[in-house]
Amino acid sequence: MDAQDAPPKPLPVAEDSVSDGFLAGIRVALSSLSPSERRVAAAVLDDPARSSELSITALALRADTSVATVMRFCRDVGVSSYPQLRLALAAAAAHERARGGDLPPPGTDISATDTLDEVVRKIIYSEMRALEDSGATLDTDMLRRAVDTIASARRVDIFGVGASAFVGQDLHQKLHRIGRFAFVWADRHAALTAAALLESGDVALAISHSGETDDTIEPLQAAVARGATAIALTNAPRSTLAESADIVLTTCARETPFRSGATVSRIAQLAVVDCLFVGVAQRSFDDTTAALHQTYRAVQRHRRPQRRTSPEERNG
């Protein structure tokens, strides 16, 4: 047997090498990898612990690709050598076992034979995982830049279609409630019209899970041409949308064929929106508190009063 084919001895796992974001980072990079590299990614994500024990040749065979492709995969996910990849996978697998016990996590794909209990378990797991992975991979320096930019902007125009439009509406409502001059556009022509009026000091924020939605990319690029600062919120950091933006905020949500465009991506986007909004709100804490109080009072009188219960009802 060739020395390269012999299974390497297990590498020691340093305690400080455990990273919540390593496997999440691979998921984020999936859309930008070549087809052969995606097969490597699928192999390591399917069983990180087992993959960490394989030689580079064995992993290449498992992924039906070449050793050179595995090395390119290493570089693309941020590690400089195959031993470092093995160490990172072993650390991530150990962290997964410590967090989830001996039982493997449930799959997120929903089948026609799943019971309703299984559907609930899979959906809740996938959404919790999307939040955890998005938190682990979110670049706080980018987030800080986005907060600074929006906090000082003359106006903020938000672009998004389909499921992303709902996220845009949520951010618009939040910013509007604290007195920020904000708009949301879910129609391509309306978005392009709005972008034509932007200028330096304004912000254009585009939301797209894939980062390849033309209806969102074109208005963002038009806003950039007008001198506005462009912010992208996407699951694909190397997408056309991300490359068109000055600031990129990423989520890490894996959609399945059965649930493409489903709530898992929106929940991750909404979490980032919440972080962005709170960051902006903190910059003018007193004014924000006063604005939230005023807007709450404006609608409070339209709320249905709580029904009073009788002593007999309260006592059962």
Structural account:
The protein has about 325 residues and is an alpha/beta fold. The chain has 2 domains: about 15-100, Winged helix-like DNA-binding domain superfamily/Winged helix DNA-binding domain (Arc Repressor Mutant, subunit A, Orthogonal Bundle); about 135-300, Rossmann fold. The protein has helices at about 20-30, 35-45, 50, 55-60, 65-75, 80-100, 115-135, 140-150, 165-175, 190-195, 215-225, 240-245, 265-280, 285-300, 310-315; strands spanning about 155-160, 180-185, 205-210, 230-235, 245-250. A 5-stranded parallel β-sheet has the order 2-1-3-4-5, with helices on both faces. Strand 1 (about 155-160), helix 9 (about 165-175) and strand 2 form a beta-alpha-beta unit.
Largest sheet: 5 strands, parallel
Beta-strand portion reads 5-15%
The CATH class of the largest domain turns out to be Alpha Beta
- Treating each run of at least 4 consecutive H or I residues as one helix, how many helices? 15
User: What is the H/E order?
Assistant: HHHHHHHHEHEHEHEHEHHH
Number of strands: 5
What is the C-alpha radius of gyration, as a whole number of Å? 23 Å
- The CATH topology of the largest domain is given as Rossmann fold
What does the overall shape look like?
globular
Q: Which whole number gives the mean pLDDT?
A: 84
Helix percentage range: 55-70%
CATH homologous superfamily of the largest domain - what is it? Glucose-6-phosphate isomerase like protein, domain 1
Strand order of the main beta sheet, please?
A: 2-1-3-4-5
In total, how many domains does the architecture comprise?
Answer: 2
Q: Structural class, judged by helices and strands?
A: alpha/beta
Distance N to C terminus: 78 Å
